[in-house]
Amino acid sequence: MIKPLRKSAVFAAFFSAAAAALAGLLLVHPIYVRSAFEERLEKHRSVTRTLGLTDPCLFTEARYTRHLSQADLHSAFQDHPLAMEHFPSGSMVLPPEHLVRPKPSGPKVKPR
Amino acid sequence: MTSSWFERQRGFLDYSLSCLWRRKGRNLSLIAVYSFVVFLISSVIFFTDALRREMENILEEAPEMIVQRTVGGRHSLIPVDYAEKMDAIRGVRSAEPRLWGYYFHQAASSNYTLMAPADFALPADRVKVGTGVLRTWGTIEEGRLYFRSRTGEPLILSIGEAFDGATELMTADLILMAEGPFRRIAGIPEGFATDIALRIRNPRECQVIAEKISYDFPDTRPILKEEIQRTYTSLFGWRSGYVVVLLAGALAAFLIFTWDKATGLSAEERAEIGILKGVGWDTSDILLMKFWEGAAISLTAFVLGVLAAYVHVFLASATLFEHALKGWAVLYPSFELRPTVDGFRLAVLLFLSVIPYTLVTIVPVWRTAITDPDTVMRQG
Amino acid sequence: MIEIDEITKTYNAGRPTQFEALKAVDLRIDTPSVSVLKGPSGSGKTTLLSVIGGMTRPTSGRVRLQGKEITGLPERFAAETRRKTFGFIFQNYNLIRGLTVLENVLIPAVPLGGRHREVRDRALQLLARLRMDGKAGQRVELLSGGEMQRTAIARALINEPEVVVADEPTAHLDSALAAILLESLAALTSEGKTVLVASHDPLVCEAEFVHHVIAMRDGSVVEEERRS
Ligand SMILES: Nc1ncnc2c1ncn2[C@@H]1O[C@H](COP(=O)(O)OP(=O)(O)O)[C@@H](O)[C@H]1O
Ligand SMILES: [Mg+2]
Description:
heterotrimer, B: 380 residues, 2 domains, five-stranded antiparallel sheet, elongated, C: 228 residues, 7 helices, 27% strand
């Protein structure tokens, strides 16, 4: 008679393979791609520095979504993120904090 | 007979796997749904953490302060001579008027960001464009881009240079040009700029300088770098719509498939527990077996879900989110995120995906398991 | 020797449904032997087996096995005694559906945590002895009645118990199958095991290998017969 494999053995083999793959990704992959990303970050930083950029190019739909940090007090973007809005990006990003809670005495910098 | 802790646990695991395997269709789809829930949640966590960290690092290089002029509470053009006055404020290293604006390209219905940097290095009939522009502008013949100026007449500028594709996250939609053509296209009159970027020597003085500017230039509004950075650290906050929808869906899925467990056992399951007690298992043995059942399912779902999320976010550029982030926009930057995994968040996720499910598996059994085993003698 | 001293069992004590299922039952059962509890339905046979086997606690009285008291143990120890000392064959076998014959036979051994290879070999030997070795990988709901029965016997024997308890084992069997079952049970005495059967089936009570017949009625022992 063929002795069937124990179910726990099959499970353990499957589970440890998946866990090993995960551990490999979590621990090894970041090291492997590290230098490429360092380089890319430096490029991003340098273009940001030289051009004085303030916002990533994530939402190009409208002027008030393209430069979120520059949105003015009366632009549509400050609508509540759960509001039905014309552009989907409004449901993903909170309005900038300084717009949600404008401080009467101007912006405050938290002491570090 | 030698008895070992390990063999005992393994025996319980064997038994519960055999039981799960009896209804493999149901249990495998349960694992699939569960993994998908874990996948969605961990994708959001991976994506937002990585993007947030990237933005934090990049925006460190943003100007310390942007000064906007407001008219009637709205952003308005700022006189260039404000910059000279601000330059004179103690602690300000430089105050540069920035010329930038948006351009809507009718043919592709896409929005671009026009900028005229002070030190633009190309001739006046040339532009430097982000790679996203090349992708979305439409047909570009001989590198020429046709703009419509404010007065309605066409303006032809040719592509002199393109940004490095690796910087798309910041530059995808940029079109850099000289000041002359910019003013003609954007309609910003001489002597005015979009806003003023301040570089400040000592970051700790920002607050004082901001207050001074608000006081000296009551028609302006300063935006600090810290606020700029914070805008993007709140990206996908827990309250924001997309995440709420995702989490609500995930929670609903979780509730649905734990519901029939939590609402009690079927007569068949109860009978089986009776049999186990009858043949000599005690309450803790049954709970242990159920623990392994819950742990096997939820751990598998956790590992598969996180694995898929990692592949999705860091190896496949978060393709599922692209659609959501892109929204109505025509142009979306192609970018890869640097793998960043926060061990603590992962631990919380592990805890949340394994503990509640395992408890929901064990608790209803516990009530049945503590009854006297002699009822098994009377079944039938 | 199994000594049963003044066992009473009252269900739902203090409530209107209070019911005295066992009334001061006093018995001595030799080991090894084959003993049969007989009596009409409702006379307390199952209850007595449950008490002896540690599945339920008596309201008063005690049970001693080879001089050691086994009643009144906390649940953990009761389960421990139960699985090491007793093997149970239930009225309708109570096999776990969807699992294979071998998996079913192994169940009582799981909490003991013995070496899997040894336990499995023991199970396969038992199945071979019961002429079930070809069926070890078969799912139990596909078995014939006789095969289910032998699976149940193998399961009762897997932990090598001193006492095998069987409640109405022939209730759903035709006489041929019943005879085979009884033979298998009787064979156990030669291995030094004690067999305790509850049955109102005359076929069981009159079988030649029975050493001790205990007649019960309304929760009391009304007659005892020892054969040699
Ligand atoms: N859990 C219980 N609660 C109340 N009465 C019970 C319970 N279990 C058994 N009885 C009663 O105890 C009596 C003896 O039952 P049992 O030992 O099963 O008899 P037998 O096996 O001889 O048919 C029956 O009248 C039965 O109704
Ligand atoms: Mg009975």
